[in-house]
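Task card 7
Instruction: Convert sequence to structure tokens.
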Amino acid sequence: YPPARCRSPASISSAELLHALEQGGKPGVDFILVDLRRNDHEGGTIKGSLNLPAQSLYQSLPTLYDLCLAAGVKQVIWWCGSSKGRGTRAAGWFDDLIQERKGTESLQSLVLEGGITGWANAGPAYVEWMTDYDADYWKQPKESRQKA
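Output:
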């Protein structure tokens, strides 16, 4: 797939996303949460997120874009393990699509700073917002975890 033209997409911190959730923000309504890891939420993921593996994402972006517009979703938040590779690339691709289709300034593509690893290790307030959280998974050294 082509490299994203947007190499530095906008980001959202774990604290900002947690605040949005605590204030009643609804995944799938106010924003879309996308876990790009291919191992189907291994170790847990943020409640309400979709699992759209990065390896097959590119072709689905126009459909996701159309769904966001039809539903009035304002933000799509992307992550992988660290959000330094796949998360940034997916956010960039989606931002490219937003820019190509003028007139959608209200839709934002954001990468979650620190990825799901940062979220899972940020403390109990964050873990509370995870589905299928596995503390043992996150205690393992990164090299020991199955590549997600």
